[in-house]
């Protein structure tokens, strides 16, 4: 099992550019989520999905889009990058959404927007 | 009020010390409690997972949950330099909530 994989590991964008952060898991988990981690702010939930075709907003969804066409993949799209989106992004997955199973994290994507 | 409160530290201890890390929470509906360890520039990795109140031990690590006080703890015995990391508490009821993390340094 590869677990949760994320690409790219690092990315530098200019303000206004768009890009997609990729996330995949091979554990057949229904629940997937995206977090951003900023110093002193901890992990903040951006979007999540409880299954293929179902997505919902988390705490900080503005400026991001997601879709879930398969169980395995959950890409995060930045529509028009802003310096405030400079952060480390983590994808995570779990068997269920309610915490009754552990949540596993990917290695992260470090994004800088200039 | 934040759902989960965690002292950010930093915490610095000598090798071999007992470390105590704590979190408080406000939502009495939380049923599942977790501790994650995050090394610098890495993703969080699950360290301990407990359901409801009580203790759970795994080697040098002990997790305690006191639901009546809405308080959870992680104890590390015989701390090692390799334990130097940020420790995040997390809990779940209908979704996951994370503390901001406590930075720990174990000095050889």
Question: How is this structure best summarized?
Answer:
Chain A is mostly beta strands. Chain A contains no helices and eleven strands. In chain A, strands 2, 4, 5, 6, 9, 10 and 11 form a seven-stranded mixed β-sheet that branches. A four-stranded antiparallel β-sheet of chain A has the order 1-3-8-7, with no helix packed on it.
- Quote the average pLDDT of chain A: 94
User: What is the number of beta strands of chain A?
Assistant: 11
Count of strand segments of chain B:
11
Total number of helices of chain B: 0
Largest sheet of chain A: 7 strands, mixed
Structural category of chain A is mainly beta
Largest sheet of chain B at a glance?
6 strands, mixed
Helix content of chain A: under 10%
Oligomer: heterodimer
Contiguous runs where pLDDT drops below 50 for at least 5 residues of chain B: none
**Number of H/I helices of chain A:** 0
Residues in helices of chain B, as a percent range = under 10%
Radius of gyration of chain A: 13 Å
Q: How would you describe this protein?
A:
The complex is a heterodimer of chains A (114) and B (108). Helices cover 0% and strands 52% of the residues of chain A. Chain A has 114 residues and is mainly beta. Chain B has 108 residues and is an all-beta fold. In chain B, strands 2, 4, 5, 9, 10 and 11 form a 6-stranded mixed sheet that branches. Chain B has a 5-stranded antiparallel sheet with strand order 1-3-8-7-6, with no helix packed on it. Classes of the chains: A mainly beta (114), B mainly beta (108).
């Amino acid at each position: 099992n590869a677990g949760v994989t994320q690409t790219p590991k690092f990315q530098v964008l200019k303000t206004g550019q768009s890009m997609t952060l990729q996330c995949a898991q091979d554990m057949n988990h229904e629940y997937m989520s995206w977090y951003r981690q900023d110093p002193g702010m901890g992990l903040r939930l951006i979007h999540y999905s409880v299954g293929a075709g179902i997505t919902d907003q988390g705490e900080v969804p503005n400026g991001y889009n997601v879709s879930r066409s398969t169980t395995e993949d959950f890409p995060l799209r930045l529509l028009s990058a802003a310096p405030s989106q400079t952060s480390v992004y983590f994808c995570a997955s779990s068997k269920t959404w309610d915490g009754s199973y552990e949540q596993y994290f990917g290695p992260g994507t470090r994004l800088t927007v200039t | 009020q934040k759902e989960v409160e965690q002292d950010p530290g930093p915490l610095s201890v000598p090798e071999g010390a007992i470390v105590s890390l704590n979190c408080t929470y406000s939502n009495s509906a939380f049923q599942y409690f977790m501790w994650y360890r995050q090394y610098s520039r890495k993703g969080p990795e699950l360290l301990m997972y407990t359901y409801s109140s009580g203790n759970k031990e795994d080697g040098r690590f002990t997790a305690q949950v006191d639901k009546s006080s809405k308080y959870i703890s992680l104890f590390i015995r015989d701390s090692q330099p390799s334990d130097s990391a940020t420790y995040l508490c997390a809990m779940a009821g209908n979704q996951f909530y994370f503390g901001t993390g406590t930075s720990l340094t174990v000095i050889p």
